[in-house]
């Protein structure tokens, strides 16, 4: 298969591209190498991917339609997977314009590209943040998601809405998947696990927000990639409408469009997460207990039923195992 993946120098895009290359597919990776965090880490990820002759990198910003079209010409993709975005909930409070540029204008350009190419399947990365602080748990795809708490969440929900209109108007089979707190080796330095492990190893305090009362549905990177790979074969159509009792399919009646959660449905209290990191390191943390930050939500909790119905799979790697793998990677990577 021939893939065009945006964001291949990022955490998730790197792992997905590596998995597809290992399976013998052809991947063109598009990335802007933005300095939101250490560009050297992004370059190292791309260098690993470039060990395969089936990988072709294109460096460019999503806002640059010409660069995207150049990548598409190289890829001639059957499947487009759009993972590139301005990430980070807290950074959206500091630099909201970057989210509009990347997640709205950039995603619009990807949709325009898909209109020109008509891929077999267009896949878009959304987020559990679109659910805001919903009281109803677990979060199911058919729940209202119209009260975003940050501009990040608002841009991701807006991307979903734009994608639905393109799926309807141009008959592009489109899946938007909502990620739930992804973690693992090669994770972003601004994410909690990376920051906690780095600080504890250095004997520095960690910031525990919400006085430790928050919970998150953590998803290990390998589980996330497995779910995406399985979903590539389930381009939305009436032929695969889910009719399982108790499961609401989000397949649109107007378009070949579907929203799918990727999360295991096993939320973990923040203090248990901290204790798991401490156990994996064999070192207690110096805890700096702080109130909840602006834009944070008290919990995330995925309903994985639709993913299970479509693929027979849901995330299953336990937190203890996932954190252990990250700590091992961190120790090896930063001991060099």
What do you see in this structure?
The chain has 336 residues and is α/β, with parallel strands linked by helices. It has 2 domains: 2-181 and 220-262, NAD(P)-binding Rossmann-like Domain (Rossmann fold, 3-Layer(aba) Sandwich), CATH 3.40.50; 183-216 and 266-301 and 317-333, Alpha-Beta Complex (UDP-galactose 4-epimerase, domain 1). The protein has 11 helices and 13 strands. It has helices at 11-22, 39-49, 65-75, 91-94, 96-117, 151-170, 192-201, 221-232, 270-281, 305-311, 319-333; strands at 2-6, 26-31, 55-59, 79-82, 121-127, 174-179, 182-183, 205-208, 215-216, 219-220, 257-262, 268-269, 286-289. A 7-stranded parallel β-sheet has the order 3-2-1-4-5-6-11, sandwiched between helices. Strands 7-10 form a two-stranded parallel ribbon. Strands 8-13 form a two-stranded parallel sheet. β5, α6 and β6 form a beta-alpha-beta unit. The longest helix is centred in the first third of the chain and has 22 residues, at 96-117. The protein is globular. The relative contact order is 0.14. The model has no long low-confidence stretch (mean pLDDT 96).
The gist of it:
The protein is α/β, with parallel strands linked by helices and 336 residues long.
SSE topology:
Blueprint lengths: L1 E5 L4 H12 L3 E6 L7 H11 L5 E5 L5 H11 L3 E4 L8 H4 L1 H22 L3 E7 L23 H20 L3 E6 L2 E2 L8 H10 L3 E4 L6 E2 L2 E2 H12 L24 E6 L5 E2 H12 L4 E4 L15 H7 L7 H15 L3
Parallel strand pairs: 1-2, 1-4, 2-3, 4-5, 5-6, 6-11, 7-10, 8-13
Antiparallel strand pairs: 9-12
Helix pairs in contact: 1-2, 1-8, 3-5, 5-6, 7-9, 7-11, 9-11
């Amino acid at each position: 298969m021939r893939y065009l993946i945006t964001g291949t120098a990022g955490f998730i895009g790197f792992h997905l591209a590596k998995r597809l290359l290992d399976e013998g597919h052809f991947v063109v990776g598009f990335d802007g190498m933005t300095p939101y965090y250490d560009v050297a880490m992004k370059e190292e990820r791309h260098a690993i991917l470039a060990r395969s002759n089936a990988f072709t990198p294109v460096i460019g910003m999503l806002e640059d339609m010409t660069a995207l079209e150049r990548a598409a010409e190289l890829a001639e993709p059957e499947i487009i997977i759009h993972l590139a975005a301005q990430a980070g909930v807290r950074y959206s409070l500091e630099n909201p314009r970057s989210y509009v540029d990347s997640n709205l204008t950039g995603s619009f350009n990807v949709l325009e590209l898909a209109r020109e190419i008509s891929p077999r399947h267009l896949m878009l990365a959304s987020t559990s943040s679109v659910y805001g602080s919903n009281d109803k748990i677990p979060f199911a795809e058919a729940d209202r998601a119209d009260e975003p708490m940050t501009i990040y969440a608002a841009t991701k929900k807006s991307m979903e809405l734009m994608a639905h209109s393109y799926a309807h108007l141009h008959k592009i089979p489109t899946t938007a998947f909502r990620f739930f707190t992804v973690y693992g080796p090669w994770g972003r330095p601004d994410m909690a696990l990376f920051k906690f492990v780095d600080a504890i190893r250095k004997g520095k305090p960690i910031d525990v927000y919400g006085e430790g009362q928050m919970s998150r549905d953590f998803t290990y990177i390998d589980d996330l990639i497995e779910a995406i790979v399985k979903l590539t074969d389930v381009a939305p159509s009436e032929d695969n409408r889910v009719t399982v009792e108790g499961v609401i399919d989000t397949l649109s009646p107007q378009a070949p469009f579907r929203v799918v959660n990727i999360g295991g449905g096993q939320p973990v209290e923040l203090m248990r997460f901290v204790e798991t990191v401490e156990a994996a390191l064999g070192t207690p943390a110096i805890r700096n207990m702080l109130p909840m930050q602006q834009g944070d939500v008290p919990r995330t909790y995925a309903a994985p039923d639709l993913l299970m119905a479509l693929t027979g799979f849901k995330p299953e790697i336990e937190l203890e195992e996932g954190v252990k793998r990250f700590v091992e990677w961190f120790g090896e990577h930063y001991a060099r």
